[in-house]
Amino acid sequence: MKPRPRRYLLLAVACTSLFALLAVLVEADTFIIRLDANLVRTLYSLGDERPTLQAFFVFVTDLGTGRPLWIVGALAVLLLLVSRQWFRALVWLTGLLASEPVTAFLKAQFGRPRPPFATIDGFSFPSGHAFGSSVTYGMLALTILFVFREHRWRWLLAGALWLWMGLVALSRPILGVHYPSDVLAGMSLGLGWGFAWAALAEWRDLQKQIRHRN
């Protein structure tokens, strides 16, 4: 399979541009602020009135931060090491480790308060859970597509991981700790982050193929 660094770079730019657009809309106090307030109220009420649904999303959100993400990230790197993809494994590990301080820095820059019924402290934009899960589960999905590229079921498993990322993001406004634009921004930035590192790995593979042909 021919490496396609431009495809991943284009995806990285598109996702990061979406984050930038959301950041501008939030910072400029546009219509998205009012839309956020209405949506988070509806989503929070949906979970608050249904204890079983709320318990499910508590479970989901717990898998979008901390140790679970480190386990998922380690699995992605391990799959690459077992496949003897040394450089790609190094790129993945660097991308995962470098992502750790990103949302803390951005939250401090935007300083957006959380929804009024939030029970935790800290700023709201962008969502750390949405960003972290998009980076980590997203990179595992890309690893599966790369390592098992001869198997048709790889798309099913990768799709399930992307769906899980969406559930983690959805859990945050349902639990009342983030606005929808927070999680959309976190997801778009996280996917852009992962695609950027994938572009680097693909570029290296492309250069190797060019050298071997010459």
Compact summary:
It contains nine helices and no strands. It is an all-alpha fold and 214 residues long.
What does this structure look like?
There is one protein chain. The protein is an all-alpha fold. Helix content is 78%, strand content 0%. The protein has nine helices and no strands. The protein has helices at residues 5-27, 31-48, 51-62, 67-82, 86-98, 102-110, 128-147, 154-174, 180-213. It is globular. The two termini are 18 Å apart.
How is this fold's topology laid out?
Elements: H1 5-27, H2 31-48, H3 51-62, H4 67-82, H5 86-98, H6 102-110, H7 128-147, H8 154-174, H9 180-213
Helix pairs in contact: 1-9, 3-8, 4-5, 4-7, 5-9, 7-8, 7-9, 8-9
Tag the structure with descriptive keywords.
single chain, 214 residues, mainly alpha, globular
Q: How many helices in DSSP terms? A: 9
Order of helices and strands: HHHHHHHHH
Largest sheet: none
Q: Quick one: overall form?
A: globular
**Overall mean pLDDT score?**
91
Q: Output the structural class.
A: mainly alpha
Low-confidence stretches: none
Helix amount? over 70%
What portion of residues belong to β-strands? under 5%
User: Assembly type of the shown chains?
Assistant: single chain
Number of strands: 0
Distance between the termini: 18 Å
Rg estimate, integer Å: 18 Å
